[in-house]
Amino acid sequence: MQHSVSIRDLSLNFGNVKVLEHLNLDIAQGEFIVLLGPSGCGKSTLLNCIAGLLDVSGGQIFISGKNVTWEEPKDRGIGMVFQSYALYPQMTVERNLSFGLRVAGMPKAEIEQRVKRAAEILQIEPLLQRKPANLSGGQRQRVAIGRALVRDVDVFLFDEPLSNLDAKLRSDLRVEIKRLHQRLKNTMIYVTHDQIEALTLADRIAIMKNGVIQQLADPHTIYNKPVNLYVAGFIGSPS
Ligand code: ADP
Ligand code: MG
């Protein structure tokens, strides 16, 4: 079976510091994988390698069977949503959603159709003519998700997309991300340090410590059969 994402023997050093070491991970088409671990364990670094925002020190990354290790981010078939919203402040929501497609030279009619669909899915249609400054945190994060959505990518990467939001919004958007996944059935790799998010969203959770995956399993197994004290302590402690 061809995996959606395959990470082979991936290493990444910052200078002399080894952040990821010989990491392997196979993700099936349509799977929702959560990378869970404490701050500094290498979650964002791993995601940035997959996205092509960092050059790897060793190993390979395959997306949909293709070796993308040295491909440009835009050629990898991925969309990324960050913790900070990274919207263009001077552009309307509609422009924020369509900008990348315009740059890529997509026909106008198709751009309009894609923006409309994304806005409908994320329930941001009434916000299309507003600018980011006039949106709430939750609305901004929906727009950020929308920007990945319009590109119709195979793989979504999320880096702690909800951690800047208050508890109520966080749980609302968590439900929406789950719904989005059920509707799109694409592959999602979702970074968090929040065990509740991990347990509710994931098909499988990868628990990370110091750049190494300690356990990779479904939430039930992680919760009931942690492989070591680290995993047990991390999943059992309040977030
Ligand atoms: P996480 O996302 O799990 O909090 P990161 O992937 O951001 O962790 O960081 C992993 C480790 O790499 C940390 O020790 C961090 O300090 C270090 N690190 C991250 N980015 C850089 C960088 N650009 N230069 C040097 N060290 C970095
Ligand atoms: Mg991080």
From TrEMBL:
Which intervals hold domain ABC transporter?
Answer: 5-235
Q: Which GO terms describe its biological process?
A: carbohydrate transport
Keyword Transport attributed: yes
Q: GO terms for molecular function, please?
A: ABC-type transporter activity; ATP binding; ATP hydrolysis activity
| Membrane-protein topology | Peripheral membrane protein
Q: Keywords in UniProt for this one?
A: ATP-binding, Nucleotide-binding, Transport
Tell me where the transmembrane regions lie.
Answer: none
Q: Where in the cell is it found?
A: Cell inner membrane
Listed GO cellular component terms? ATP-binding cassette (ABC) transporter complex, substrate-binding subunit-containing
Q: What is this protein called?
A: ABC transporter ATP-binding protein
Q: Tell me which species this is from.
A: Devosia ureilytica
